[in-house]
Amino acid sequence: MEKKKGRVTLPSENNFLAETKELLERWGADAIRDSDGTKLDEAVKDLDAKIYTTYFVARNHNDFIEEHMEEVQQLYLMSQFNTATSTELTIDFMKGYFTEQITPDYRHDPKVWWEVIDRTAATVVDSQSWEIDQNKHTLTIKAAEPFHEYTVSFLVYKIWDPTQMYNHITNNWGDSVPHDIPFDVRQPHSNKYMADTLRAFCENNPKTDVVRFTTFFYHFTLVFNDLAKEKFVDWFGYGASVSPAAFQAFEAEKGYRLRPEDIVDQGYYNTAFRVPTKAYLDYVDFISRFVAKEAKKLVDIVHEYGKEAMMFLGDNWIGTEPYGKYFQEIGLDAVVGSVGGGATLRMIADIPHVKYTEGRFLPYFFPDTFYEGNDPTIEAIENWTTARRALMRNPVDRIGYGGYLSLAYKFPKFVDYIEQVTDEFRTIYDVVKGSKPYTGLKVAVLNAWGKLRSWQTHMVAHALPYKQIYSYLGTLEILSGAAVEVVFISFEDVINEGVPTDVDVIINAGDAETAFSGGEHWKNPALVAAIRQFVYQGGGFVGVGEPTAYQHQGRYFQLADVLGVDKERGFALSTDKYYTQVVDHHFITADVADPNQLDFGESMHNIYALDEKTEILQYANGEIHLSAHPYGQGRGVYLAGIPYSAENTRLFMRALYYAANKEAAFMTWQSSNIHIEVHAYPEKGVYALVNNTNTIQPATIYDGQQKEQQVTLEPNEIRWKTI
To answer: Is 11 part of a structural domain of the chain?
Structure first.
């Protein structure tokens, strides 16, 4: 059988022509790309493949920016907390920061643009009460309150692009490669230079078919410490888009002036976990509209030269919110992003208003993974298997890899495995794309960000795990490859428009006071009333961790009446808690051998039942970790946490079906084995059995009429069958 080709992008580099041709054939690639630190030979560009060329809009042009250092990109940073022990306090505000990455901005008057805050009293210190020593980078407060804590919010220039810095250090580029200095599109010389340089690039690179913008203007917030290690990283942070010019333009557009504190945010820098303030949401909107307008100018230039414009969903992606209201205006042909798992795959694949999407799979071909003694195939298998679940629901249009192909080529086992992956991807794509898969439920993920951050909840640095989030990120990872339709709604959506009428279940998951749980939003009577009515009339509500949590009017979980549980915070210890009996059998735990072995991740302490109607499914150490509760015609379900695993995928899906009162439909297109998933495509007349493990798995399969058949799948096998 002739090998299929296409839909795969291969990285290449100098002096690697023969090997590139070999892998182009073996992996069936139809596009070739360069990467940060690599270039393509002219002979490679002449191969029968589309040529992607990485293009840095706002860096990699030091010859220009060194002549206009006043236009370097900026950040607002906050000093460490400093305690005054007398009426005079000197603060070394640069302490803990990496001076090769940032330098203080003294061009703009600190008395106007900086802010000193008494954090103990939560007051701003009058600018006449402090002075700066520019030689020592210190600030001295002359009339401090003894034993109050103080911080300085200060402007800096970002003199080294953080992604290039990471690549520089990881690959040990040394002094031979200069530090890229990023410049600001809002500034006049930089704005003109970006357009002129792109035109020159298009003219000088006739063999480039796709300009791969990496990305546009403003890098997500990534600041390093004095040891050149990451100090603060927020993949969604807008900190690197600030400047006096931006603040002045914001004031002219929005009608009020921002403070440094609106960006610094007590040192939290408005991470996606913080419930966003009106000022911050206004700023995100302001920057997004500006970026869309400026990015469109560059995309139009690319189109003038008959080339495609592709955006990398990473690095300098801030302001290009792909689910935001301005994204369509940019006019991009494609978006490519890094795939860490199912959730990030769907984050890319579901992006609207582009001709095609592409996922860059892991591992990246860098020496931190491809070194003697390591097997990069292990990471590749895990990455592919996890993301494949999401591909079965909505595949990206292309897949690819990045980095140094010469490193990957040294690992024959890895090369062989990727050959299997690319073949499997094309088979999946040909069946799944454009075909509506069987969907048993529609669920709405409810948080403060809503649609704007679709598939992006509980992320810090893209798909990297953190202690406080894996218990919640499991919800998205599970949903990414499940037979459910997923939408993302905000609290404002519910308040203004109500719960969508076609939604079966609402999910609220997160720690208290975070944007994902909701914090003070739960004080709003309109919000809680709308959701109560939705559940009472037959809807489902699934809460994970500290859902609806905000101490108010005798409740901590504001929908405790729906969930049937609340959290003891020490205020109600005088009230006895009688309801501790665990039910013997339940639909949600039907596939669980031992409920006491369930994995709730970081879990949650001190959850107790409100009444005898609460069905307790897991109870240990005097607290509930899993329960269900009737509410009118609907149901609430509580989980203390839900990390991603095969066991938890089955548990969570059962919880959703139970909350929706659709238990009878659960065995439609289902498997008795939690490690095998069934994906049906009625329009195509086919279904797929997918083994998500590296071992042989037997199972009883239930089709669309819940009729049984016995199968045994090989490790990682996908078996296609006719309906």
So the answer is: no
Indicate if 132 and 272 belong to the same structural domain.
yes
Q: How far is CA 536 from the centre of its chain?
A: 33
Residues in the chain predicted with pLDDT less than 50, given as ranges, are none
Clarify whether residues 579 and 712 are in a common domain.
Answer: no
Contact present, 223 and 101 (Cβ < 8 Å): yes
Sort 653 into a burial class: Cβ within 10 Å, 0-12 / 13-18 / 19+. buried
Please tell me the distance from the alpha carbon of residue 471 to that of residue 602, in angstroms, as a whole number.
6
d(CA 222, CA 48): 38
Tell me which of 180, 282, 315, 561 is the catalytic residue: 315
Residue 283 within any structural domain of the chain: yes
What is the extent of the structural domain holding 696?
670-722
Q: Please check whether residues 581 and 697 belong to one and the same domain.
A: no
DSSP one-letter string for 605-635: S-EEE-STT-EEEEEETTEEEEEEEEETTEE
Q: Are residues 573 and 590 in the same domain?
A: yes
For residue 308, tell me if it sits in a domain.
no
Phi then psi for residue 298, to 5 deg, are: -75, -40
Q: What angle do CA 470, 478, 540 make, to 5 degrees?
A: 105
- Reading the block at residue 668, the tokens are 């439609």
| Measured distance CA(291)–CA(112) in Å, rounded | 26
Return d(Cα 541, Cα 443) in angstroms, integer.
Answer: 10
Residues 472 and 546 in one domain: yes
In this prediction, residue 104 carries a pLDDT of 98
Angle at 18 between CA 13 and CA 22, to 5 degrees: 100
What's the Cα-to-Cα distance from 124 to each of 48, 117, 411, 447, rounded to whole Å?
63, 4, 58, 32
Residues 535 and 647 in one domain: yes
Indicate if 682 and 569 belong to the same structural domain. Answer: no
Q: Residues 660, 674: one domain?
A: no
315 catalytic? Reply is yes
Q: What is the pLDDT of residue 466?
A: 86
pTM of the predicted structure, to 2 decimals? 0.96
pLDDT at residue 2, rounded to an integer: 64
CA 641 – CA 631 distance, rounded (Å) = 22
Q: Is 12 helix (H, G, I), strand (E, B) or coil?
A: coil
Q: In Å, what is the CA distance from 83 to each residue of 80, 88, 117, 650, 682?
A: 10, 10, 12, 51, 66
CATH of residue 701's domain is 2.60.40.1180
What are 508's strand-pairing partners?
A: 543
Peptide bond into 197 cis (omega under 30): no
Contact (CB, 8 A) for 481 and 539: no
Q: How far apart are CA 533 and CA 394, in angstroms?
A: 32
Q: Write down the pLDDT at residue 36.
A: 75
Q: Which SS3 state, helix, strand or coil, does residue 312 take?
A: strand
Domain count, the chain: 3
